[in-house]
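To whoever is on call:

I kicked off a structure prediction for a single chain this morning and the downstream step that reads the tokens threw a length-mismatch warning. I double-checked the sequence; it's 73 residues and nothing unusual in it as far as I can see. Pasting both halves so you can look.
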Amino acid sequence: MSLDGLKTINDIAGHEAGDIFMCKTVDKLRCAIGPGDLLARLDGAEFAIYLDQIRDIQQIHRMCRLLLDTLET
């Protein structure tokens, strides 16, 4: 997944504001995923999430919806 607005935040408000945005976003994502799941920063504003207990496409859709809803709040 990618945090599309990070560059804009860095450009307008500075890298410190971008760091705060990133930390708050990561905290939200960590709360949404399960204890056996893994959230990793790949590069810049790019992240990967390993979902240990996801076994079928319906579970993937539900988790994606949960992550999007989490980030919208």
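Update from on-call: the warning came from a stale cache, not from the record. Cleared it. Sanity check on the structure: Helices lie at 6-13, 15-32, 57-72.
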